[in-house]
Specification:
There is one protein chain. Helix content is 43%, strand content 13%. By secondary structure, it is of the alpha/beta class.
Amino acid sequence: MDKDAVAAALAEIGTLLELKGENPFKTRAYHNAARTLEGLAEPLGKLVEEGRLGGIKGIGEALQDKIQTLVRTGRLPYLEELRASLPAGLLAMLEVQGLGPKKVRKLHEELGVDSIESLESACVAGRVAALDGFGEKSQSRILEAIAFKRQFASKHRLVDALAAAEPILAALREHPDVTRCSAAGSLRRWKEVIGDIDFVASSRRPGEVLGFFVALPGIQTVLARGETKASIILECGIQADLRVVSDDEFASALAYFTGSKEHNIVMRQRAIARGLRLNEYGLFRSTEETRDPALRVECRTEEDIFRELGLHDVPPELREDHGEFALAEKHAVPRLVEWTDLRGSLHNHSNWSDGRDALEAIVAHALGLGLSYWAITDHSRASVQAHGLDPARLQRQIAEIEAINQRLSDQGESLRLLSGVEVDVLKDGLDLPDDLLARLDVVVASLHVPSGDESENTRRLVAAASNPWVHMIGHPTGRLLLERDAYKVNLGAVIEACAQTGTWIELNASPYRLDLDWRLWARARALGVRCVINCDAHRLEHFDFLRLGAGIARKGGLRRDDVVNTMTLARLREALASKRRGMEIRPS
């Protein structure tokens, strides 16, 4: 087991102990140990082999034994016994938004609730509302959260689908009987939430390829295997389907199974208008449905298909019948932003608030990636749960960032840390005074505790956009994909306010957020609002979210010049300063 897997196991032990009502100091020790392991700068296996676990603060003998067992064997009898001692449904209840271990334990002990189903029944009967510490509002929210969870039970976040699909795709590409292959479906279109994973491959020996596919590691169940298609359930719970076609059929099969349904309907209609038929087997010179090879129009690539239908090639991300045809007809499909265009991120956290890593570790990682800048925007004081910074701590952080930048300059490095804050948007204004915000390079204004009233939330975000020291609005809807709906807000009014004030809008690239939604970027772009693709990084691994954010920006039709953090450091500094002067700087 690597350190992340061991940390997850320790955190689970802490949660299970909380569910059992164990001593809070004991449960806290496991959670603290998990966080400590996550922050290790060297491989956990090396520490175990060299007997150096005892030198880590907070890791006593009992924890050392458990960590060593996990690292060396991949399992821990103590954890397995803990799991067996509690109803399995209690852990599932923790996945319901708003329920923590203490509340779940209370529901179990006082109402006998031991599953999401029995929790729902107790809520419907009004028993939860009568429980001390809950009430009618809590009961209503629990029912809403259960309904939300059930609605998306078979859905998966894009990042999880990518992690599952990419090794499979790499393995297929290496197979000697595969001529061409690609991901398809909603994954290839970079939808923020997907159902299953689709693959399309071409081969002269489909049986060999399908046999290889169903024998890959990491498969939980083989659902079906036919002559041209196989379906499996991966250990992560995602279904994956592979279709194998001839190479002559590959381009049309890939286009068809990439979709979307709405996009495909328009494509078929265009074919019919030209006396052709388009389906998954090819583009045919026919007025009726067919797959006759003698009637097939030779199309080696998807670009060939688009050309035959009088269209410019449409990138997969745009194939939603969301305006792409108007551009393709005029051959005006733009060059979309690439993740390699991005030079840094302007919303990130460190261990000064709720991030995992120290500034020096962040600098070293950013240098290794060849980035130009990285903003440190820890939470402001209102975010108590995130150990937010008060003015005094923020000023100390500014001084530390200045010292780091001086060292980088002395060493001839081009990377710079930018000082900043993610300031809470409160009912009566921003969480920090303007004179302090004015000292910072970057200010992200975010609404973390919304009102239930749409007009109130809108008023607060519009006011934040109107503050001359605010550069951007962070995660504008507050949604958590598959966990929590967006809060009530008039986004049209917020976008218009940003257009009027020159305030940028964040595309928060956290896989849980991907907010602002891709469907709204056409409106924002039309009004001249600029996008900032931010990692909202809380650990070094989150630097990778730049790629995810760029994919969603592409889906929203954004070009390089639409995205602030494609700028050089010098141009970015000009843009940051000009926002406060009411001017506008474009990338170069």
